[in-house]
Amino acid sequence: MRDDPTVVDLVTRARDGDKSAWDELVERYAPLVYSVCRRYRLAPPDIDDVGQSVWLRLVEHLPGLREPAALPGWIATTTQRECFRLIRASSRVEPVDLAESADVPEQAIAEEEVLRHERGTILRTAFGELSRRCQLLLSLLMQDPPAPYDEISRRLQVPIGSIGPNRARCLTRLRQTPALAMLAADGPDDRTRR
């Protein structure tokens, strides 16, 4: 995942001034910035401030980024640093370095955040490859709380007894999408060693 050709292409194009590539980078990694900020329990206006700082820093550093594939890690680390800077500057709370408090290096936390984000991106891509009917069924089953079977039956116009078998077929199709097949072949141990 760290050598994702899509990321390398987007970084290269954004570096060359392609606005659509820049927009796609922001759209792709805004959830990563948000998730790091939420871990520090920042208020929504503070999250917006951190996000703006991260994107501004990326504009400044994009031309000098030596390894385009390392962009997700750079974004996660920069977001953490911006969160610390904001917390210290606001003096509302005493800053706590989560990396030190857990005796885990900052880089390991950033890598875990990047991996979580990349897995989510892959899953959303795979989900988008499913039929609309499978997407709707799985969405209804995965919402919190899950929709009752009678509601699913009514909305999809299928018998209640066919919901389970349809769910199984949709999950099999999801597992067989190219994106998830690649993720499964990569193996969890291989991804964490990179």
Automatic annotation (TrEMBL):
Coiled-coil annotated residue ranges, if any: none
Q: Which UniProt keywords apply?
A: DNA-binding, Sigma factor, Transcription, Transcription regulation
What domain of life does the UniProt record list for this protein's source? Bacteria
RNA polymerase sigma-70 region domain ranges (all copies): 25-92
Q: Which SUPFAM superfamilies match?
A: Sigma2 domain of RNA polymerase sigma factors, Sigma3 and sigma4 domains of RNA polymerase sigma factors
Signal peptide start-end: none
GO MF assignments? DNA binding; sigma factor activity
Q: Which GO terms describe its biological process?
A: DNA-templated transcription initiation
InterPro entries hit by this protein: RNA_pol_sigma-70-like, RNA_pol_sigma-70_dom, RNA_pol_sigma70_r2, RNA_pol_sigma_r2, RNA_pol_sigma_r3/r4-like, WH-like_DNA-bd_sf
Protein family membership: Belongs to the sigma-70 factor family. ECF subfamily.
- Identification of the protein by name: Sigma-70 family RNA polymerase sigma factor
